[in-house]
Input
Amino acid sequence: MIKYILAALACGIIVGYSNSKLGDVFPNRFVSYYLFNACLIFLLFVMGFALGADKEAAVKIRKAGLKILALPLTIALGSIVGGIVSGLVLRIDLFASAAVSAGYGWYTLAGPLMGQMFGPEWSALGFMVNFLRELLTIITVSVMVRVDKYAPIALGGATTMDTTLPVIVRYCGSDALMTAFTSGFTLSIMAPLTIITIASFR
Amino acid sequence: MMFDLMVVIFVIALVFGIGLGYVWRERKRVNLGRVTFAAIIALIFLMGFNIGSDNVLLASMPTVGVNALVIVSLTIFFSLVFVKIVRKMVKLE
Output
């Protein structure tokens, strides 16, 4: 599975790169917006179906209850601590590095928002860190799932409600769907709030 | 902001799928493995396409690359460690 995923990713990058160099043979917005989202909506539907049809999954989710929220809060805290530590290591603005990590993988948000709150020089970093987070989640999922059942969800951060969700469910099982989705959803709400809060402390 | 209509559609698709799956559960078993696999591969390919055609992203890679790698590694590391610790304290299935 992971072989095909990596191959698809590499092919996609090459095709995308060639396409933009050849002057957008396929309109970029069409591919990146409509096709991508159509694919995602289809997958969410199919995975929801599999979850609904799974009799054991409902029992497991009911047992987890509100504890399900412990996971995104922990991931948020861990991310921000990681951001502060890396700020110390790299000797850069601690607030900025913490805020960059508080994008939780949502790079289309973290890039522009970092630019807005901390200045344009942080925009590229906010974008890149969170983009790499999403990429690493997909690349390492087969290894991470052996470390801990929820490790891929921890890595994925806010992306586990959409882009990385299909891959995570594939590896962690159908009953991880609600945990991953709730975690990603909560972190997606928290991302702009925490970035702005951290910026206001600066 | 960007947290828009798409998210609403995502939730609807998911809820609709769960509902339909729930209704379907007593009927014939359907194997969705192949369909999901194909859709995942298509999704990852399109993600790659987005990356490859994003000139701003590719251009910023050499300048912020090293810092970004350090930050993302530590961010992931601490998220993982914290989740491991909390999993020991709060029992999650």
Q: What stands out?
A: The mean pLDDT of chain B is 81. Chain B touches chain A through 74 residues (CB under 8 Å). The radius of gyration of chain B is 20 Å. Chain B is about 80% helix and 0% strand.
